[in-house]
Amino acid sequence: MTPRRACPDDAPACAAIVRAWLDRTDWMPEGPDLRTLEEAMRAAFAEREVWVVGDPAEGYLSFDPGTSHVRGLYVGRPGAGIGRALLDRAKEGRDRITLDTHVPNRDAHRFYAREGFRVIETDRAGSDGVPELRMEWRR
Fold first, then answer.
1. Residue 48 structural domain
2. What CATH number corresponds to the domain at position 10?
3. pTM of the prediction?
4. 78-99: per-residue pLDDT in tens?
5. Runs of H (alpha helix) within the chain
6. Other C-beta atoms within 10 Å of 66: how many?
7. Are 103 and 97 in contact (CB under 8 A)?
8. What are the Cα distances from residue 72, in Å, to 61, 64?
């Protein structure tokens, strides 16, 4: 499972992954529609490092190299190793990475802890109205 840089053609699959997650996550607000998500993906591809696994994409990670912050990590098949492969790619050549995760998303917290992340800040205001934790990984 080798991550590759995302291209504009990956935007529909990445948007569909996020929309499916929103649809099955009862504690999240409704969120944007598929078209709006796709437009946001295309914009992010130009501004950040975005990595995907699969063709079509089965998961993606959006990374801001200037701040070493993961802006988003979503997978279509949790437990298949896609998230780990994407995080391993983001960790390459870095000593520190941060990310924010929704407080109610306990499955994500367990995954990030297994990948070496620890909570460094609690009860951050999320842009979607759901409180977040900030987590950090250090080499």
1. 4-138
2. 3.40.630.30
3. 0.93
4. 999 999 999 999 999 999 999 9
5. 11-24, 34-47, 82-91, 106-114
6. 7
7. no
8. 6, 10
